[in-house]
Amino acid sequence: MAGQLGGVTQNYGMLSDRTRMRMVERLRQAGVRDERVLAALYEVPRHLFVDQALATRAYDDVSLPIGHGQTISQPLTVARMTELLFSGRPPGKVLEIGTGCGYQTAILVRMGAQVFSIERIAALLDKARQNLRQAKLVQARLVHGDGHFGLPEAAPFDGIIMTAAAKTLPEALTAQLAEGGRLIMPLGDEEQHLWLVEKTAQGIQKNRLDPVKFVPLLPGRN
Ligand code: SAH
User: Fold this and answer.
1) pLDDT digits over 39-87, tens only?
2) Catalytic center at which residues (predicted)?
3) How far apart are CA 27 and CA 19, in angstroms?
4) Strands, E assignment, 68-126
5) Which of 58, 100, 108, 192 has a C-alpha 20 to 30 A away from that of 184?
């Protein structure tokens, strides 16, 4: 028994440093350039955000199940989206839609953003709250609700990041962007792409980026 426990401790020791460093090197090779993003992915212990049974795979570049039919995005997707969201600017005030296990939330908090995050499944929001507490990144405001409507009471946002795929762009979200603000989200159904939406003095600009695969944005909350 003692041996087994010792083994587990050793495993976690390994998970917490060298494995994370390797993950960051892979992200760099895949083209992630923002050192603030790379530092946050290195520092936030991703294994705390997945089931213990999956902890040894936490630093592989894969998405993993987090319960309730939902998934935590792969590290490269989290890094890419965060890099696009901030594009070299100070993080400012950010709205996340789809808290899930709270990993993306933790990255945003670690980077110094003022974070509001909305999740429609109450049980997942509780889990995210626990995970963030364990990771000692508790500054985000977590809200149980339907992200289709954004969070008008806290708007405008410098950035909005959505981690579930909408079929069409929810109008409420562009309305809640500050001028100069950026919205990054997956759009589509069977076929999905990341979209970058920017609010400029001239109006809204939309750009279609990489093909992606996210769980769907669903209506209502439960
Ligand atoms: N960023 C998360 C990814 C979770 S998957 C993570 O790192 O774990 C997407 C999440 O979006 C799921 O938890 C799902 O329940 C949530 N979601 C789907 N539709 C939503 C909606 N309308 N409002 C808020 N959250 C929603």
Assistant:
1) 999 999 999 999 999 998 999 999 999 999 999 999 999 999 999 999 9
2) 73
3) 13
4) 70-72, 93-97, 114-119
5) 58
Question: How many whole angstroms separate alpha carbon 43 and alpha carbon 113?
Answer: 15
83 lines ligand 1 (CB under 6 A): no
Order of strands, sheet of 203-212, starting from the edge strand that comes earlier in the sequence: 141-144, 114-119, 93-97, 157-162, 177-188, 192-200, 203-212
Tell me the whole-structure pTM to 2 decimals. Answer: 0.94
Q: Is 16 among the catalytic positions?
A: no
**In angstroms, what CA-CA distances link 152 with 91, 95, 98, 100?**
19, 10, 16, 21
Taking CB atoms within 8 Å and a gap of at least 24, the contacts of 27-32 are 27/75, 27/76, 27/79, 30/76, 32/76, 32/79, 32/80, 32/83
75 lines ligand 1 (CB under 6 A): no
Residue-wise pLDDT for 178-189, tens only, equals: 999 999 999 999
What domains lie within the chain, and their CATH numbers?
Answer: 8-212 (3.40.50.150)
Contact (Cβ atoms closer than 8 angstroms) between residue 204 and residue 197: yes
Atom number in ligand 1 closest to CA 103: 7
Task: Determine what percent of the chain is predicted with pLDDT higher than 90.
Answer: 89
